[in-house]
Write a structure and sequence with these properties.
Elements: H1 7-17, E1 29-32, H2 35-47, H3 53-61, H4 68-81, H5 90-108, E2 114-115, E3 121-124, E4 139-142, E5 146-149, E6 156-157, E7 162-168, E8 187-196, E9 203-208, E10 214-217, E11 220-223, E12 226-227, H6 229-238, H7 244-250, H8 252-255, E13 260-263, E14 272-277, H9 288-294, H10 298-303, E15 304-310, H11 317-335, E16 347-352, H12 354-360, H13 368-371, H14 386-396, E17 404-410, H15 423-431, H16 440-449, H17 464-467, H18 473-480, E18 489-494, H19 511-514, E19 521-525, H20 535-550
Parallel strand pairs: 3-9, 14-15, 14-16, 16-17, 17-18, 18-19
Antiparallel strand pairs: 1-5, 2-3, 4-7, 6-12, 7-8, 8-9, 10-11, 13-15
């Protein structure tokens, strides 16, 4: 009987043995500045610009002992005086600080209307297709209060108003009909607070900048100040998945219930989904650098929304691919039951490492093409329990998805990796616990009709590590499966900066394994296995996405 080592030993071995089979995720650091610190910054800003009327009003508003009506009236006037300030100027900084202070004051009174000292009434705009009502948000946080670490760039846009992050918790009624809610984090969204006064009465408006960042304010068209990184970082801080790394590799039986397709932001029927699939011992956070950089591209922001697939990475690749198909079907049924939205027929799959294999199976045809490479007896004629037969048919009988129109493979081991056959990998392969266990009679029935070189898979569980062995007959079988005609696919490959392709490797996957001769394009980047985090790799993905939405 194989003795299971202590958890500490597993972690130590994982760090040593599996580092080459995976890539680390960018763990975003986030600190939220408290209110008193922010008020102190506002006072300093006002004090250093004391000769300015708007600065004087701001200083007065953040002073101690100021009545609510006076405070809000001063802030409204300060914002009005600086409404046309040039982005980057001190006046613009005063405008944003005054706007944030006004929002905070209105938050304290649950955004109830307030009569100003000039007799006008300040109110808050409700929800529309372009705006949101802050009274329905579970959290409303100024983007400037978030200190974000360990990202190469922070993607922002200068403009009018003050950027905010809105968060809805998973149980929020505002998320009704959203199929991919992150269990801990819920959903976040970028909004911009703007004070409008062109309709007779002043009104505080929260624009959904993911929907539109170019609006008419007080009679003039302006870009909205936006922080595109902040909602992503804030969501990650609320729902860490780090425990999924090792645990999801070994204990798939305990982590299967966490698998699913998740949204980064509220569903937008006017945008094409990009589905990101992580690799072995990884998680969706690995895509943060790519998504953050992509959001800097205005065309991509306008045309795309981002979904993420989370799964226990110890599962066999074909089982993971089946789970992803189920999740994508669920999304489509929920969001577009009549299949009338053309944007949902233009989805792009983006997979890293083993996630590339999972993504590729969404545009290939299985069924008899796959089965005949392993056995001569049709699965329906095997003497199996109904449960096993149903599971087998669900995994094997699949066709290419008609809603996936393009695929991008980052550092994908189409022909396996030598590192998956080292002693440590073999050790971990023996530890993997799958969420399902076949009856002994079913195992024997399958083995009798299997090709001899595949029978070992049913001695030990056919998990992901076994599947990734170099020149695996399973991977060879997948490569022979026909792709859906007319669906372009692209490869991004790392060579560690050595410039030695075709004899190169990214340190985990050699070029001979990641290369696909019929790929629409292939980009070699100076990267290790994390080609999806490499700036050149991300730039290539941006190029592909721009091309896709232009076709």
């Amino acid at each position: 009987m194989f003795a299971r080592p202590p958890l500490a030993t597993l972690h130590a071995l994982a760090a040593l043995a599996m580092v080459s089979l995976s890539t680390g995720c960018t763990v975003v650091g986030l600190q939220v500045q408290n209110l008193s610190a922010r008020q102190g910054e506002a006072r300093n800003l006002a004090a250093h610009n004391g000769d300015d009327r708007a600065a004087a009003l701001l200083k007065q508003a953040v002073g101690r002992g100021v009545g609510e009506t006076e405070k809000i009236s001063d802030l409204v006037e300060a914002i009005r005086l600086t409404s046309t300030a040039r982005p980057g100027s001190t006046q613009h900084q005063i405008n944003q600080t005054a706007t944030e202070t006004l929002v905070s004051a209105m938050q304290a009174r649950q955004f109830a209307p307030v009569t100003l000292r000039n007799g006008k009434t300040l109110s808050v705009a409700g929800t529309s297709d372009r705006t949101m009502d802050p009274r329905g948000a579970d959290e409303l946080v100024p983007a400037s209060a978030l200190r974000i670490e360990r990202l190469r760039v922070r993607t922002t846009q200068d403009g009018a108003g003050a950027p905010y992050v809105v968060r809805y918790v998973p149980s929020s009624p505002h998320l009704s009909g959203q199929p991919g809610i992150t269990p801990k984090a819920g959903i976040t969204e970028a909004v911009t607070a703007v004070l409008r006064s062109d309709r007779g009465q002043p009104q505080l408006v929260f624009y959904r900048t993911s929907k539109d960042d170019d609006v008419v304010i007080n009679g003039r068209r302006a870009k909205l100040a936006t922080d595109f990184t902040a909602p992503l970082a804030y969501m990650l801080s609320k729902g860490r998945n780090r425990s999924m790394d090792i645990r999801s590799l070994i204990r798939t039986d305990l982590t299967m219930d966490q698998a699913g397709l998740f949204q980064f932001s509220p569903y937008d029927p006017d945008k094409i989904p990009v589905v990101f699939v992580h690799g072995l011992m990884s998680r969706p956070e690995t895509w943060v650098p790519a998504v953050n950089d992509l959001l800097a591209d205005e065309k991509i922001r306008e045309r795309y929304q981002f979904w993420f697939f989370l799964y226990p990475t110890g599962l066999p690749v074909w089982a993971t691919a089946a789970k992803l198909r189920e999740e994508m079907d669920r999304f489509r049924t929920t969001l577009d039951p009549r299949r009338a939205n053309p944007n949902l027929d233009r989805m792009v799959m983006v997979g890293h490492s083993m996630g590339g294999l999972v993504s590729g199976l969404q545009i290939r045809t299985g069924g008899k093409h796959l089965w005949q490479q392993f056995m001569n007896t049709p699965p329906e004629k095997l003497d199996l329990t109904p449960q096993t037969k149903e599971r087998l048919l669900r995994i094997i009988n699949f066709g290419p998805r008609q809603d996936v129109a393009r695929a991008v493979f980052f550092s994908t081991p189409h022909r396996g990796s030598e590192l998956a056959v080292n002693p440590f990998a073999e050790f971990f392969a023996r530890l993997v616990r799958l969420p399902f266990r076949l009856a002994q009679s079913d195992v024997l029935a399958i083995r009798r009709v299997l090709r001899e070189d595949l029978r070992e898979l049913f001695v030990a569980p056919a998990n992901s590590i076994v599947f990734l062995r170099a020149r695996s007959p399973l991977l060879a079988a997948i490569l022979k499966l026909p792709m859906r005609p007319g669906v372009p696919y692209h490869s991004v490959v790392g060579d560690r900066g050595r410039g030695d392709t075709p004899d190169s490797s990214d340190g985990v996957v050699p070029y001979w394994s990641s290369h696909l001769k019929d790929a629409r394009s292939e980009k070699i980047v100076p990267s290790g296995h994390g080609s999806h985090e490499n700036p050149e790799g991300i730039a290539e993905l941006a190029r592909i996405l721009r091309q896709h939405c232009s076709n």
